[in-house]
């Protein structure tokens, strides 16, 4: 693989030298144009943007495959039960929530190439080791269950979840480093070029989000889980080598990446806080008799374990990171984006599980999933067009309005014909129905498999799971509602809202890139990731609180309220910005 990459770069260099040679007098204009186009293409293929796109595509493809596969593997290991999957989701969300600021601070404090290489290495090696452990567990499961009265199985489960969580944390660090910092420097702080790179990276993410789970799912279906683990293992090893070479190449050909702002001129908020505390500590212990106070201070330090000192330092860094996030001019816009994560109006397992209870087949859900991806791609196109025509801040306002208008269709679906919305089941007198017993409280009386009050997520044995979507093997027989108006309005609103959603997401992402000073990019984006995970956890808590299909309308209304609150925060930010003099975009 190293030889292939070096040969690729050598050939591009050779072609570039050949093309820049002066043509002879008999060369036609058409030949000159052809040579110019070929030369431009080769220069682009050798340039930093293309290398970042390829590296990002490989990384995103691997992430999507792994996120899909690990959920399926955990279900298979625990006998088609959701317990391990739920624990894994909680550990991943909780770790990013707690460590997001620390990850970002680590990105800020270290050279860019070391951060990228370390994150890349930790992520891929963690996935590789985890895949090996899974292959061993799948191959010798019965034998492992007999050792230590089954406790070795628990150890294996713990190792798998911990390694997968470490891989996710490393992936978060790599995303912050490359997509929030590197591309800003690569574009030379040019807003137009930055918008183009952001949109392209998001398009790559949308495509891989659809194709990567399907690819690894086919391998696992046609072969076995062991072969699927081997496929992911091989992919990560190859991806590690290629990404390492490409990122190293980008770091060499963009000299600005090796330069971070001098500490005296662009000190971060965290460094200033540390120096302030250090100076306050020196004043506090300034002695009347130097030797006595120094000895007392050393005795106090010696009494406190080193681990507690480090823990206090880590907690202080987290607290200061959240304060740094709060003091950013773009704070309201970032918080508004985080509020958009508290929603069931997306193609995740919750919404598709609800669609299953309403008689929608798996094949139709897969088609709707593809249409949703196309809508997301249109959102990236809309973002680039609006930014050029209206400016970045106004693009966010227009995208917010478009998002909210489309979601009104989802709100209408709650009260439209065919909706199973029934609030009477929440009464104390009907509490016996909440436990999953069959009741007669449906607004329309079509039978649902497993009872009218079955949870939004049916038995795992009858479904295929993708990264964010559930595809069911069999459509529920005889579950046609009286009217499809409600479910049509719901998915029409979800799909069309993706255009405004992704345009708004790209707007806030670029605002964070442009507004945050270079020395604080990592910690602020780390806290932003923590906020996103926190609000995402809230939407799962919502579903746990009201898990029945008859209550899905309540979840829709709460989701729209959260989204409206998030966009209101952005409107307040835009109003504040427009009162200040603007630089040309």
UniProtKB/TrEMBL annotation:
Transmembrane segments: 35-62, 82-103, 115-138, 150-170, 232-251, 330-356, 362-384, 396-416, 483-501, 552-573
Function: May be involved in iron transport and iron homeostasis.
Annotated family: Belongs to the ferroportin (FP) (TC 2.A.100) family. SLC40A subfamily.
GO cellular component terms, A-Z: membrane
Highest taxon of the lineage: Eukaryota
Subcellular localization, as worded in the UniProt entry: Membrane
Keywords, in A-Z order: Ion transport, Membrane, Transmembrane, Transmembrane helix, Transport
InterPro entries the UniProt entry points to: Ferroportin-1, MFS_trans_sf
Organism of provenance: Sinocyclocheilus grahami (Dianchi golden-line fish)
Recorded topology in the membrane: Multi-pass membrane protein
Main location, first listed in the record: membrane
UniProt name for this protein: Solute carrier family 40 member
Keyword Iron: no
GO molecular function: iron ion transmembrane transporter activity
Phylogenetic placement of the source organism: Eukaryota, Metazoa, Chordata, Craniata, Vertebrata
Presence of the UniProt keyword Ion transport in the record: yes
